[in-house]
């Protein structure tokens, strides 16, 4: 399907209106998964022309995404990844876990951004960062698209590594997201140490419901996109 390539329009506008010289783009991956961390990439690209074919990672084939990530690693001015573990997600809730992962990524950059472009309509980052949210920013903004691809490729690789010894769950293919193979393994074998135990998928698995963790303070700001037994990823 044809798509419009991302541009530097939002970044140029922010530079002009705020005087910022360092603008970072943030994107996350893994929010709707049943297993594995939630990962946030912070990228700084400047205003150079991006590699051909850059767009939201979800619009790319795995082969093209991996090749593009290799190009981006040497093309971006700087990038860093932050992760929140399944245990942190269970304890804090997704909104706070996303904030934690994003702060880890931003703090790991060699330069401190003056403005952050955040994909989506919700600012889960907040103070002390100056944030501009952009719906579908991973398709329209170069710096967010770059973060999207780098985050997705790195987390997929992490999930493949975590899947060693848990081959029945198919982490190499589903990256911890809902899928028929993943659900069948959960029903037969129960959660692995890499699973989120506060997620609602356990409600449909009577044999393993006793493992479910319930947070004392509900995470009303987090929408567990993969919490139900659906299979979109």
What does this structure look like?
This protein is α/β, with parallel strands linked by helices and 233 residues long. Helices cover 36% and strands 13% of the residues. It has a five-stranded mixed sheet with strand order 3-2-1-4-5. Helix 2 packs across helix 6 and helix 3 (86-92) crosses helix 4 (94-108). Residues 221-233 have low confidence and may be disordered.
Please describe the topology of this protein.
Blueprint: H1 9-18, E1 23-29, E2 38-44, H2 62-75, E3 78-84, H3 86-92, H4 94-108, E4 115-119, E5 131-134, H5 137-140, H6 142-162, H7 171-174, H8 180-189
Structural class category = alpha/beta
Largest sheet: 5 strands, mixed
Instruction: State the low-pLDDT regions, or none.
Output: 221-233
Order of helices and strands: HEEHEHHEEHHHH
Number of strands: 5
- Percent of residues in helices comes to 25-40%
Question: How much is the average pLDDT?
Answer: 91
SS strand fraction: 5-15%
- What best-fitting shape do the alpha-carbon axes yield? globular
The N- and C-terminal alpha carbons lie at a distance of 18 Å
Strand order of the largest sheet: 3-2-1-4-5
Q: Which value, in Å, is the CA radius of gyration? A: 18 Å
**What's the tally of helices?**
8
Quaternary organization: single chain
Task: Provide key terms for this protein.
233 residues; alpha/beta; five-stranded mixed β-sheet; 8 helices; 5 strands; 36% helix; 13% strand; disordered C terminus
